[in-house]
Design a protein that fits this description.
single chain; Nucleotidyltransferase, domain 5; Aminopeptidase; seven-stranded mixed β-sheet; two-stranded antiparallel ribbon; 18% strand; globular; membrane; LytR_CpsA_psr; transmembrane; Biofilm regulatory protein A; LytR/CpsA/Psr_CW_biosynth
């Protein structure tokens, strides 16, 4: 008789039942373990979300009155379609440390941050604050007057109407918060010329008095790791250091250096950075939108940066307008802007931009080809 024939059928049946019970119990344990792991992961995600929400609650949120946001209706459908592949955010820097009000005041810094939704490349454009543009109601003056006159809504409208953009969100920062942020990052490396080192002295003294810091002056040019006061002073150099053009370039240089260093920082530093800067920010983004942006922060890369207008000149038009930056002409500059931001080589200026361009030529006498 074979070994198989010696097996007790009842015992084999019991063995099979026990085996099935064991398998069921094992499967149940695996399911419980899987559920437990999923619960832990969800709790961790929730903890991270709550952590960031607690930080984001420090940011001042404002709901824009979209009825006050102007967008040119005559932008071509082709250009509108191309722009949908990007997120263009208006960024304003105010020097409002004295009153803490981020809804009023002339914008010391005007920037466009343009995010390519596919590649996550971020391009920065500084709009020279003295640029002669329509600031609302057909009034042409220095463009930074728009924020002072009508807050973020009018400043965004100024950018949309003059530059054929479709901006619906903004971030405003007290520009002096750069001091604390740079210090938390351990400074930023900059190459300074002899002229810049000399020109920084007055700004460093002013910022030391304002903030209670004791930052040292730079005796000569060279490569330095600038602290917060020094970096802010460097970004503020204007007269004698290339005027507003070089000034905005310095601002972009400092901002780019800060972003790169923040991306390399540990979580403790990032946490301190968030704590410090959040109280100096006002934005139209909701917490959910900010979380969505923050979740991709390490995917972003800073691409090319530039200033607007590209071709320009300066003149004192009157005592009222003062020394302004004149685009030569506006239509040509806006076309170059759309090529830079959106790679839209087929862009043509809307009738609104063309009319504003003609008005600027009429007021100033400077036309296409006159600038540098």
């Amino acid at each position: 008789m074979s070994q198989r024939e010696n097996v007790n059928p009842r015992r084999e049946q019991d063995h099979r039942k026990n085996s099935r019970r064991y398998q069921k119990r094992a499967a149940a344990r695996r399911r419980r373990n899987t559920i437990f792991i999923m619960e832990i992961v969800l709790l961790l995600i929730l903890a991270v979300v709550l952590f960031f929400v607690s930080k984001l609650s420090k940011i001042e949120k404002t709901k824009l009155d979209m009825d006050k946001i102007e967008v040119n209706e005559d932008i071509s459908q082709e250009s509108r379609k191309i722009m949908k592949g990007y997120q263009t955010i208006a960024m304003f820097g105010l020097d409002n440390r004295s009153n803490g009000n981020l809804s009023q005041g002339r914008s010391d810094v005007i920037m466009l941050a343009n995010i390519n939704n596919d590649t996550k490349e971020v391009k920065l454009v500084s709009v020279y604050r003295d640029t002669y543009l329509d600031t609302g109601d057909g009034i042409f003056q220095k463009c930074n007057a728009a924020y002072a006159k009508g807050g973020p809504e009018q400043a965004i409208s100024m950018l949309n109407v003059n530059l054929d953009l479709n901006i619906t969100d903004y971030v405003t920062v007290d520009f002096n918060s750069i001091i604390e942020c740079v210090d938390l990052l351990g400074g930023v490396d900059m190459e300074i010329t002899d002229d810049e080192a000399s020109l920084m002295t007055g700004y460093i003294r002013e910022l030391n008095e304002l903030t209670g810091n004791k930052a040292e002056n730079l005796t000569q040019g060279g490569t330095y790791t600038l602290n917060g006061v020094q970096a802010c002073a460097y970004a503020r150099i204007r007269y004698g250091g290339g005027d507003d053009y070089r000034r905005t370039e310095r601002q972009r240089t400092v901002l780019t250096a800060m972003v790169k260093k923040a991306q390399q920082s540990d979580l403790t530093t990032v946490n301190k950075l968030i704590n410090e800067v959040c109280g100096d920010i006002q934005t139209s983004f909701s917490n959910a939108e900010l979380l969505a942006l923050a979740s991709q922060v390490f995917q972003y890369s800073i691409g090319d940066t530039t200033g607007f207008p590209f071709t320009k000149t300066t003149r004192v038009l009157s005592k009222k307008t003062g020394d302004v930056v004149i685009p030569c002409d506006l239509s040509d500059n806006v076309k170059e802007l759309h090529i830079f931001l959106y790679e839209d080589s087929a862009y043509t200026a809307s009738d609104t931009v063309k009319q504003n361009s003609e008005k600027i030529v009429s007021d100033t006498g400077f036309k296409s080809g006159d600038g540098h």
